[in-house]
Amino acid sequence: MTWDAIGMLTAVAFLAGFFDAIAGGGGLITLPALFLAGLEPVSAIATNKFQAASATVSATVAFARKGLIEWRESRWLVFCGFFGGACGALLVSAVNKRWLEACVPVMLIFVALYFIFSPRLGNEERRRRISIFVFSITVAPLLGMYDGIFGPGVGSFFMVGFVLLCGLGMMRAMSFTKIANAACNLGSLSIFIAKGVIVWPLAVAMALAAFAGAQLGARAAVRVGPRLVKPLLVLVCCALAIKLLSMESNPLRMAFLNSW
Predict the structure, then answer these.
(1) How confident is residue 92, by pLDDT bands cut at 50, 70 and 90?
(2) Cβ contacts of 23 within 8 Å, gap of 6 or more
(3) How far apart (Å, rounded) are the C-alpha atoms in residues 123 and 126?
(4) Which end of the chain, N or C, is less packed with Cβ atoms under 10 Å?
(5) CA-CA distance, 195 to 141, in Å (whole number)?
(6) Global pTM?
(7) What is the pLDDT of residues 2-57, one digit of tens each?
(8) Alpha-carbon distances, residue 89 vs 42, 78, 165 (angstroms)
């Protein structure tokens, strides 16, 4: 791999880290770039997970410095997210991803519609349907497993789950999302490290850039608040859905083309 390619991928990782810290979805920027650079698929996924973990840990640190991370409330979320991410990484070669490729764009569109039409999503709390503990032991492992297997949009799914199910305000939901996403990424990353499939020089360069981008994104999110988070969530969800539907292997795209 040439230095030009490494430099380009590092710049892409910085941009992905910025968006990931605010609304998630950075992986669908970096992963195609790694494929285009010629990395073998498993190594591309593993290398991408290293930089993604760096971005989410960076964002979590930035939120923690602002006093926005509720560590006591998050302990089960961290454990269950880590466990789910590790299980997903173990199952990555055993699960047929075609049904995920079909379902995830539809789910992302519904998430975007929810944030578009939901009335006044700000920092105020809403009616709680389940506690954060129940969310941690039921929803978090499933989303963590999805993150280990596939990944796109998991931050948006966590966000809407905390808002819709736990009744959290936007910024509080984002802080829980950051720590949940970091736990999932670290869980799956631990498996990829054990398997020895990470391209370390490239992974480290991209991780440093993603860390810096996530710091900038987290500070922007904290400073501007829901006015920035909500439109970016909608934008990222729509962009991810379009990107997934445009892939030649996507079953929905193939079914649509065959119907014509």
Answers:
(1) confident
(2) 155, 156, 159, 229, 232, 233, 235, 236, 237
(3) 9
(4) C
(5) 22
(6) 0.79
(7) 788 889 899 989 988 887 777 666 776 787 788 778 787 778 878 988 988 988 89
(8) 11, 17, 26
